[in-house]
């Protein structure tokens, strides 16, 4: 289990190591490295998703490790409460940014091994704290530079850690 401590409350997620081993290991390593500490949920779209894991509180993009292979062909679906990797148009470009689905987003599911069909890899789900996600999705949004759908009030992941292990 992973806990995302935010300024809106805690979100606990379970990772699907069996169905998305590379993706779950990638996310967990970013957590263990402290990468997500002090990052923003920088994109909130009601009826769609909340996205985070890429920008610090000054809205500087954080450097990441190399992209990982897209495991979206694992049978998992982008349903409400699931975690998936954000990426560019390149299906195999995911690094650290992730999103929590706040609706059933079937159009994000894997439908074929083409650029359009790869989908977005689900690798976990919220097991506690959907009430916190509900609070986050209710935050008014604005533009910030080139970015749209940015919360007008910072939504910060203050600390992310592996649950049931001693905190550093």
Automatic annotation (TrEMBL):
GO terms for cellular component: cytoplasm. It catalyses: [protein]-peptidylproline (omega=180) = [protein]-peptidylproline (omega=0). Keywords: Cytoplasm, Isomerase, Rotamase. It is found in: Cytoplasm. One of its GO terms (molecular function) is peptidyl-prolyl cis-trans isomerase activity. One of its GO terms (biological process) is protein folding. Residues 1-162 form the PPIase cyclophilin-type domain. Signal peptide: none annotated. Its EC number is 5.2.1.8. The keyword Transferase does not apply. InterPro entries: Cyclophilin-like_dom_sf, Cyclophilin-type_PPIase, Cyclophilin-type_PPIase_CS, Cyclophilin-type_PPIase_dom, E_coli_cyclophilin_A-like. Belongs to the cyclophilin-type PPIase family. PANTHER family: PEPTIDYL-PROLYL CIS-TRANS ISOMERASE CYP38, CHLOROPLASTIC. PPIases accelerate the folding of proteins. It catalyzes the cis-trans isomerization of proline imidic peptide bonds in oligopeptides. This is Peptidyl-prolyl cis-trans isomerase. It comes from Halomonas lysinitropha. The lineage of its organism: Bacteria, Pseudomonadati, Pseudomonadota, Gammaproteobacteria, Oceanospirillales.
């Amino acid at each position: 289990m992973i806990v995302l401590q935010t300024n809106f409350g805690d979100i606990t997620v379970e990772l699907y190591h069996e169905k998305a081993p590379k993706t779950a290991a990638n996310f967990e390593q970013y957590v263990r490295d402290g990468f997500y500490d002090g990052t923003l949920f920088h994109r909130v779209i009601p009826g769609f998703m909340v996205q985070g894991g890429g920008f610090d509180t000054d809205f500087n993009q954080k450097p990441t490790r190399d992209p990982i292979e897209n495991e979206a062909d694992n049978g998992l679906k982008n349903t409400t409460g699931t975690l998936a990797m954000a990426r560019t148009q390149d299906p195999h470009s995911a690094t650290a940014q992730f999103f929590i689905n706040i609706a059933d987003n079937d159009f994000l599911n894997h439908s074929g091994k083409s650029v359009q069909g790869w989908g977005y890899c689900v690798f976990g789900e919220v097991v506690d704290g959907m009430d916190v996600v509900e609070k986050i999705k209710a935050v008014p949004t604005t533009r910030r530079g080139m970015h749209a759908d940015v919360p007008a009030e910072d939504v910060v992941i203050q600390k992310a850690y592996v649950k049931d292990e001693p905190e550093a």
